[in-house]
């Protein structure tokens, strides 16, 4: 088990610690390292970098001024680790979830979050970003349809 900190990327303030997780599994740390965005207590953060330090792991974040919470803070009801698949269009994130998947291990979840492309409903989709919405206890994978060349 490990220690994970989320720190604000602000050198002038000494990189203040925002959140601390004690006794977190390495699998969960790896899944969080993959995510581009982190939502907690209604605030949206963008991951800038990840670090391994003597006392544990650190994810450096900055406030995402363009970020917004897409769904109300209601937990996704599923057994296991929920992953919501959502479509993007015209550079905007869709508020309509396409699919909710559930995984039993963080390793299975990590493979899904790392994939750059996926087939969905017979069409090829490209990953736009991944996030952990801790307010809703869900990981979210945003994707857009791959445009075919004319």
Fraction of residues in helix = 10-25%
**Rg, Cα atoms, Å:** 16 Å
Separation, N- and C-terminal Cα atoms: 51 Å
Total strands: the figure is 10
What kind of sheet is the major sheet?
10 strands, mixed
Instruction: Please mark out the parts with pLDDT under 50 across 5 or more consecutive residues, or reply none.
Output: none
How many separate helices?
Answer: 2
Q: Give the DSSP E fraction (strand runs of 2 or more residues).
A: over 45%
**Topology as a string of helices (H) and strands (E):** EEHEEEEEHEEE
User: What would the average pLDDT be, to the nearest integer?
Assistant: 86
How would the global form be characterised? globular
General description of the model:
With 150 residues, the protein is mainly beta. It is 12% helix and 55% strand. Strands 1, 2, 3, 4, 5, 6, 7, 8, 9 and 10 form a ten-stranded mixed beta sheet that branches. A hairpin with a 4-residue loop joins strand 9 and strand 10. Helix 1 packs parallel to helix 2. It is globular. The N and C termini lie far apart (51 Å).
Keywords:
single chain; 150 residues; mainly beta; ten-stranded mixed sheet; 2 helices
Mind sketching the topology for me?
Layout: E1 2-8, E2 17-24, H1 26-34, E3 37-40, E4 43-53, E5 56-63, E6 81-89, E7 92-103, H2 106-114, E8 117-120, E9 123-133, E10 138-145
Parallel strand pairs: 1-5, 3-9, 6-10
Antiparallel strand pairs: 1-2, 3-4, 4-5, 6-7, 8-9, 9-10
Helix pairs in contact: 1-2
């Amino acid at each position: 088990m490990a220690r994970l900190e989320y720190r604000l990327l602000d050198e002038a303030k000494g990189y203040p610690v925002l959140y601390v997780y004690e006794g977190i599994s390495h699998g969960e740390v790896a899944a969080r390292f993959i995510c581009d965005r982190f939502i907690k207590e209604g605030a949206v953060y963008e991951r800038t970098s990840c670090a391994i330090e003597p006392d544990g792991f650190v994810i450096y974040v900055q406030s995402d001024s363009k970020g917004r919470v897409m769904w109300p803070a209601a937990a996704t009801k599923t057994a296991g680790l929920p992953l919501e698949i959502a479509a993007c269009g015209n550079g905007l994130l869709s508020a309509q979830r396409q699919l909710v998947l559930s995984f039993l291990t963080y390793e299975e979840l990590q493979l899904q979050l790392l994939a750059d492309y996926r087939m969905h409903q017979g069409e090829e989709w490209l990953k736009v970003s991944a996030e952990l919405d801790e307010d809703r206890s869900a990981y979210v994978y945003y994707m857009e349809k791959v445009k075919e060349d004319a």
